[in-house]
């Protein structure tokens, strides 16, 4: 009994399926390799195609009369819907780009505003300095005018001093002459 085999249901099922598949393939090959079958199946396919086209035309006419959409109409609507979604996505992306550009521009305008504020401050500072410099220049002009007057007065005083010195010299000489005359008279 050591040589007897036990029954394996899996192996039996596998053999049965292999045999059935082989027989089915043989039958299919026999039919498909036959020219008469090919002609008959081609004719049947053509006939079925004509009936299908006629059925679709009748169905479209009926749906048109009932004002109901056909498969083509639904497919076109689906295509239009997809195209619309794509266009909306593209528009949304463009809007985001525009928003980014606006934000960037606003930041630039903000910095430009800051720069212009600083420029206005500098201009105001320059105006006040200009007014102060103008006042100082007016004061310097007054001082210059006063210095010119003082110079004229000094020149006049120098002239007076020279006149006084010449008068002193004349007086001294006149006094010497009078002393000589007095000395000559007293002798």
Counted beta strands: 0
The dominant shape is rod-shaped
Poorly predicted segments? none
Mean pLDDT metric: 88
Major sheet summary line: none
Order of helices and strands: HHH
Distance between the termini: 203 Å
Helical element count?
A: 3
List the helices and strands and how they pair.
Elements lengths: L8 H24 L2 H32 L4 H115 L2
Task: Please provide a written account of the structure.
The mean pLDDT is 88. This protein has a domain at 10-68. The protein is mainly α and 187 residues long. It starts with 8 loop residues before the first helix and ends with a helix. The radius of gyration is 65 Å and the shape is rod-shaped. It is built from three helices and no strands. It has helices at residues 9-32, 35-66, 71-185.
Sum this structure up briefly:
With 187 residues, the chain is an all-alpha fold. Helices cover 91% and strands 0% of the residues.
């Amino acid at each position: 009994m050591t040589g007897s085999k036990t029954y394996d249901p899996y192996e039996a099922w596998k053999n049965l399926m292999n045999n059935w598949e082989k027989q089915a393939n043989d039958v299919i090959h026999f039919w498909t390799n036959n020219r008469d079958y090919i002609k008959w199946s081609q004719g049947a396919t053509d006939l079925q195609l004509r009936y299908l086209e006629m059925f679709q035309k009748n169905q479209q006419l009926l749906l048109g009369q009932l004002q109901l959409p056909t498969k083509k109409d639904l497919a076109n609507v689906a295509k239009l819907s997809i195209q619309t979604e794509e266009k909306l996505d593209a528009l949304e992306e463009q809007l985001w780009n525009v928003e980014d550009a606006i934000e960037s521009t606003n930041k630039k305008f903000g910095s430009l505003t800051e720069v212009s504020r600083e420029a206005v401050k500098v201009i105001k500072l320059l105006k006040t300095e200009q007014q102060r410099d103008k006042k100082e220049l007016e004061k310097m002009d007054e001082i210059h005018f006063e210095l010119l007057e003082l110079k004229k007065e000094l020149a006049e005083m120098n002239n007076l001093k020279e006149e006084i010195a010449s008068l002193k010299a004349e007086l001294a000489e006149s006094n010497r002459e009078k002393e000589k005359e007095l000395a000559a008279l007293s002798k």
